[in-house]
Design brief:
The protein is an alpha+beta fold and 392 residues long. Among the domains are: 124 residues, no CATH class; 82 residues, no CATH class. The protein has 11 helices and 22 strands. Strands 4-3-6-9-10-1-11 form a 7-stranded mixed β-sheet. Strands 5-2-7-8 form a 4-stranded antiparallel β-sheet. The radius of gyration is 23 Å and the shape is globular. The two termini are 34 Å apart. The relative contact order is 0.14.
Length: 392
């Protein structure tokens, strides 16, 4: 109890953005990446509730502003509450995972109080992050070449955001907004092998890591990124015809959307929507790219992808569909699951089963790219580009 009291009675400094794990931690782990560019910062939790952190071995808590160690002991469980955390802290465990609310995580954890909420950022090596991401995105039972393709795409996605996420104290979050990450609980020996065997490899265009979008099932054709997201025209994210995802359970589907379903979903964003009178779809390559809804109080215009995201994923799997009206709404005859840009995961599985290796898979779905291995010059470039919020 004395240790807990000592931990939470903190001096009142302002929140300061920190950088990488402490120098002593790096030395203990035999790591030389003092610039931190081989590390990724993942927002794993945002809460106004208390959190617990424990370790089976040594646990250490450091004030990031001063570097002062305020706790150092073994086999303990610490509790952090928002009102007591007044400055940024780093929690380290040198020879054991950190158990955060019972779930194990590699690396270190940074704790910050932002407007009364605790933000927990897991700081760990990129490949260790991928040990959890890859099996979170595709089944570990799939062909190894498909697993490798996913590993390289996920690593590239992480480095793209490490370089380009300029205005944040973390690189990615742990949800589908970035890449699904749940710590060590998701790790699997096969996907870990896929990550290790491709270590350092990224997808490059014009000497930069690409924004390597991926999705479950394209349904027969991917689509250019510019038709899904505004101001997102990338030469490597072009439409390709795909005949490899036909075995996906989501290759074809049928769904009913009642006018009531559509109106209730639209009300999440458009509070003053009236009775729906007409819905129009503008398509490209068979995929809806713009939606126009005429209602009693006016007209709503939005992109196809933004329309899709207003519905539960299982209700509207993709915007690749034909529709017909029925008395209460629309019947959709659809194909695929997801936004349809970049790597088709079920397509990667199909290609791998036909003998394609992971590099051929990636070059099929990403136009005009190269697969390169990061070296010391690459890491110096990434360090120079990384967010100033992180490098302080």
């Amino acid at each position: 109890m004395k240790k807990l009291l000592y931990l939470i009675v903190l001096s009142i400094f302002t929140v300061l953005i920190s950088c990488t794990p402490s120098k002593k931690f790096l030395i203990k782990k035999n790591l030389k990446d003092s610039s931190g560019v081989k590390y990724v910062r993942v927002l794993i939790l945002k809460t106004d509730k208390k959190i617990t952190i424990k370790s089976k071995s040594r646990l250490r808590v450091i004030k990031r502003k001063t570097g002062k160690v305020i706790f150092d002991s073994r086999r303990v469980k610490l509790t952090f509450v928002p009102e007591k955390v007044k400055e940024t802290l780093t929690v380290e465990s040198w020879s054991s995972p950190l158990f955060i609310n019972g779930s194990p995580y590699r690396g270190t954890v940074e704790i910050r109080n932002i407007v009364g909420k605790l933000y927990l950022i897991n700081v760990l090596k990129v490949d260790e992050y991928l040990y959890s991401v890859v099996p979170g995105e595709i089944p570990s039972s799939w062909n190894m070449q498909a697993l490798k393709a996913q590993a390289v795409a996920a690593r590239t996605y992480a480095y793209y955001h490490i370089i380009n996420n300029k205005n944040s104290f973390y690189d990615v979050d742990s949800s589908t907004k970035s890449q699904v990450y749940k710590g060590m609980i998701k790790e699997n020996i096969l996907t870990t092998e896929a990550v290790k065997s491709t270590s350092g490899e990224v997808i490059s265009s014009n000497f930069q890591p690409i924004l390597s979008y991926f999705h479950s099932t394209c349904g027969g054709r991917t689509i250019d990124s510019k038709y899904v997201w505004k101001n997102s025209e990338n030469s490597y994210l072009r439409s390709v015809k795909c005949k490899f995802c036909i075995k996906s359970p989501y290759y074809k589907w049928t769904e009913k959307l009642s006018l009531s379903d559509i109106r209730e979903s639209l009300k999440k964003k458009y509070k003053n929507i009236g009775k729906i009178k007409k819905i129009s779809f503008l398509k490209k390559y068979g995929r809806v790219i713009n939606v126009r809804i005429l209602h009693t109080f006016g007209t709503i215009k939005l992109t196809g992808n933004n329309f899709r995201l207003l519905f539960p994923p299982k209700k509207l799997k993709s915007m690749f569909f034909n529709s017909k009206t029925y008395r209460n709404g629309l019947i959709l005859f659809g194909r695929g699951w997801g936004h349809g840009v970049g790597l088709c995961q079920w397509g990667a599985k199909g290609m791998a089963e036909k003998g394609a290796n992971y590099k051929a898979i990636l070059k099929f779905y990403y136009t005009g790219i190269k697969i390169v291995k990061l070296n010391n010059n690459s890491f110096r470039y990434i360090a120079a580009k990384r967010s100033p919020y992180i490098s302080r």
